[in-house]
Amino acid sequence: MDKFNDDSCFLFADPSFSAGVASVIDIGGTLVVYNESKDGQEADMRAIASDWAITGKDIRTSAEKFEKETRKVA
Predict the structure, then answer these.
(1) Which parts of the chain fold into alpha helices (H)?
(2) How far apart, in whole angstroms, are the C-alpha atoms of residue 47 and residue 33?
(3) Residue 11: HSE in the Cβ half-sphere, 13 Å Cα cutoff
(4) What is the greatest pairwise CA distance in the chain?
(5) Which of 48, 45, 36, 31 is closest to 11 using CA atoms?
(6) How many angstroms from the chain centroid is the CA of residue 15?
(7) CA 20 to 30 Å from 39, out of 5, 12, 50, 72?
(8) Which three-class secondary structure state does DSSP give residue 70?
């Protein structure tokens, strides 16, 4: 995969350019907000569900690509 899927990064901060500039002067780290879960079990459940959803998308994309390529040959 050549780029990250948005679904796979839900536990990380979602920085912008302006947030990056502001973080230079944010010594206490008060501007950084992460996507949080209420507990570790919920975070794990969300991560596993996201992993399987992305795996399903990858399989679907590969199957569609395979089908298109085999139609060209036939």
Answers:
(1) 17-25, 40-73
(2) 18
(3) 15
(4) 63
(5) 36
(6) 13
(7) 5
(8) helix
Residue with tokens 């502001």: 22
Contact between 23 and 69 (Cβ < 8 Å): no
Q: Check residue 6 and give its pLDDT.
A: 55
Contact 7, 53 (CB under 8 A): yes
Q: Which amino acid is located at 59 in the chain?
A: I
Tokens of 41: 């079990």
Q: In whole angstroms, how far apart are CA 15 and each of 7, 44, 47, 54?
A: 15, 23, 20, 22
- Nearest CA to 55 out of 16, 19, 1 is that of 1
Contact 49, 24 (CB under 8 A): no
